[in-house]
Amino acid sequence: MTKEMTFNGVDMSRFFRITDIIRPIGNTRSVSTDNAPLLGVNIQQVKRGAKEHTIKFDMKTSNAMEMEQLKHELAGVLDVTEPVRIVYGDEPDKYYMGLPVDDITPDNLARWFQRSEISLLIPDGVAHSSTYRTFNSDIDAAVNSEKMVFTLTNNGTAPAYPIVTVKHNAENGYIGLVNQHSAFELGNREEADTQTVKQSELLLDYRDNSILTGFSRGVKNVAINNDNMQRLNSTLNTVSVWGRHHIFLQSPGGTVGNNAGSLSWTIPADSAGGTGSLHDYIWWRQIFWLGASNQYGFMKISVSDADGQFLYGVETYKRSQGLECEYNFMASDGRGGYNMLKRWTFTGTHLDYHNPFNSTRGWSDLKRNDDKVQVYWWGSYPVFTIPEIKGKKSAKIHVTIGSIGNKPVVSHMYLDSIFYRKDFVPVTKNIPNRFSTGSNVVINSEDDTVYIDGIAKIGEVVDGSRWLSIPPGRSTLELYVSSFVRNKPSVRIEFEERWL
What we know:
With about 500 residues, this protein is mostly beta strands. The longest helix has 15 residues, at about 65-80.
């Protein structure tokens, strides 16, 4: 039977023919002991170590020169400094994370026919399932007023590390997850919902498919921005790409100067009838991904007051040849102009480490408390004090997407979602809770991260929490939320099964 192997996505049959794959049973074990008083020893610790696989193979070419070239190419494929994905043909439903160790010295049976072996170190010591096992609250959970109890099955022989996604169907301030091996808490167990305090209210919500509603309700081409360097004469429209809807610049209004299209939404009155706000929270998802280095364009999210004056906002800009893009935070200077308070740069490719606004990400937010504005940038939350906007209420939210002269426009310059929340509404009602209705929380025990609506929030994890692990076999996992929650969240639990 032909043995097959892929290493870091490369089919290794192009280099050699595998004659044997030696995979040990289980893992290396080290046992620490000390002497017992009368007979035998006391076991202090038992530790399971890594795995090591041995791949025996033959290399055959038509001549010696071709053989040496093939060896050079193989060395390049194997030159990795961290574990990569390894799949064997006789285990297509599993993969290992490993890397070569030791030297690879072939036996020269002939200059065109050589035989050798590769030692692969598997540092985590397990095989992973190629697909995730999934459990959903509507099928796999027993729900009562106190908790949700999931019955889980892990067919592996090692603990699995789950990814738990919680979509809230009601406001909530706390998530607790408990099983026989771990206890994990997020938020505040004591957070109440009936105290008379100022609250947050979601006044505009155009997330996901609702962006189409936001587009139809937005007033076109009347935006108030930090400057008037662009003419609002262009056409925005909607398009479906990557399985979701976006607002984009359909056609520029001219080829001289900066031309743009815009949408504006008036902040609705809150439940107490108050209009305008000194306490804003704006969250949105945008894409800004270049198709070529000679593309240009810009996108702005801005806030104006009741007098039609610019207060603060951010802009994403590509204004020069190359791949460098800007993300700028601006605020009013109190004299009808603006101050550029911070400029960040990024590289507008599809890569995660280059671009926070590529097709799979793009989440961002602004939070205002009177004269202080917090700006999210790539995992950080700098806060700026702006005396010029103190006491001036926000009245409208604007989105502007534009082009620069007759230059090619950025290929993917989209708005996917946006919502506006007003904080500290002066009414006696529910306390503003950490997790609003519709919010998504992802607790990922594979890489020890927590994301709330796409933004990293590791600070919400309660001290002393232990990241979740699912033991082999059949087990239960209990999920708790705040006591005031009557409509339990929708929950999905996914994990890779792992084998020793």
